Amino acid sequence: MDAEKLLQVDPYWILVINLLKHNFLLLLVTLVVIFLASASSAQRKSRKFLPPGPPGWPIVGNIFQVGPLPHRALAGFCRQYGPLVYLRIGSVHTITTECPQMIKELLCNQDEVFASRPRTAAAKLMAYDQMDASLAPYGAHWKLMKRVCMEHLLTTKRIASFQQYRLEEAQAMVHSVWAECKLGGKVINVREHLGSFTMNIVTRMLLGKRYFGSESMGATEAKEFRELMHAGLKLLGTVFVGDYLPFLKWFDFRGYQSSCKRMGKQMDDFYSSILDEHRDRLRQFGNGPQNFVDVMLKTSAGERKLNDTEMKALLQDMVVGGTDTASFTMEWCMAELIRNPKILLKAQEELDQLLEDGHTLQESDLPQLRYLKAAVKETLRLHPPGAFLIPHESIRETKIAGYFIPKNSLVLINIHGLGRNPDVWENPLQFMPERFMGDKVELRDAEFRLVPFGYGRRKCPGATLGQSMLLLGLGNLIHAFNWAPPPPLLPTHIDVLEAGGFTNPPATPLKALAIPRLTHHRY
Ligand code: HEM
Question: What domain of life is recorded for the organism (predicted)?
Answer without folding.
Answer: Eukaryota
